[in-house]
Write a structure and sequence with these properties.
By secondary structure, the protein is an alpha/beta fold. The chain is built from 6 helices and 11 strands. It starts with a strand and ends with a helix. It binds cytidine-5'-triphosphate and magnesium ion.
């Protein structure tokens, strides 16, 4: 069963506010993107890795991983969903796993778990249960009420679906003018019920400054405890 990875890496990292896009910042001696791509290139479950890059990206070619023969470059788009669509069009695999370049703390264990669970169903995504009491506030920041957190999950990546089904779902969402922020949303709009697979809560997305230090701490913990 062939699985390709599609890694959207064409964002500019506006919230990080660094001199380079956040996927090119250093994390424990390697760039974030190098680390993320290595996770997939090192997995025996993954056939090819498609990385979506912003047009004229001046950084990617200096990454060691850029010379890997199993790596394919795809053009990035205006939104994440546009980048993912371009990536999917470069794949011929039966299944695809879409994973944010900005999540370098994914473990090989979670990658395998998702692959096993998603293939036995009609696709799925890594999720982590919400831990805190959830509030809804108005624009005035006054609390309107408490949201029952039972059954609430953070949608993580990777998210894994049959390539042709995901391609169709994303194209349909795009033609309706909907900018979906994850693959599951597109599949949900198409009437599917993706499986929520409980993954590690430390599969964080690097968004702003403090997240880099947190990611370093998480990776060091994985190394010390032999988590792969
Ligand atoms: N991404 C992409 N193409 C875009 C926008 C985002 O490939 N047009 C990618 C990012 O590179 C990232 C992932 O999608 O790996 C998740 O997006 P996000 O965390 O929002 O990254 P940025 O859009 O770069 O950050 P920001 O929203 O702060 O600008
Ligand atoms: Mg963004």
């Amino acid at each position: 069963m062939a699985i390709d990875a599609v890694i959207p890496a064409a964002g500019i990292g506006r919230r990080m506010g660094a001199a380079v896009p956040k996927q090119y910042l250093q994390l424990a001696g390697k760039t974030v993107l190098q680390r993320t791509l290595e996770i997939f290139l090192n997995s025996p479950l993954i056939s090819r890795v498609i990385v979506c890059l912003k047009e004229g990206d001046p950084y990617f070619d200096s990454l060691p991983v850029s010379r890997d023969p199993r790596l394919i470059r795809a053009p990035g788009g205006a939104e994440r969903c546009d980048s993912v669509l371009a990536g999917l069009r470069c794949s011929e695999a039966e299944w695809v796993m879409v994973h944010d370049a900005a999540r370098p703390c994914l473990t090989g264990g979670d990658l395998r778990l998702l692959a096993e669970e998603a293939i036995s169903r009609d696709g799925g995504l890594l999720c982590a249960p919400v831990r805190d009491t959830m509030k809804r506030a108005g624009e005035d920041m006054l609390i309107q009420g408490t949201v029952d957190r039972n059954g609430l999950y953070h949608a993580l990546t990777p998210q894994m679906f049959r390539r042709t089904e995901l391609l169709q779902a994303l194209e349909d969402a795009a033609s309706r003018g909907l900018k979906v922020t994850d693959e599951s949303s597109a599949m949900e709009l198409a009437g599917c019920r993706p499986l929520a697979v409980a993954g590690r809560a430390d599969n964080i997305k690097i968004t702003s400054q403090g997240d880099l230090e947190l990611a370093e701490f998480i990776l060091e913990g994985h190394r010390r405890n032999g988590i792969v």
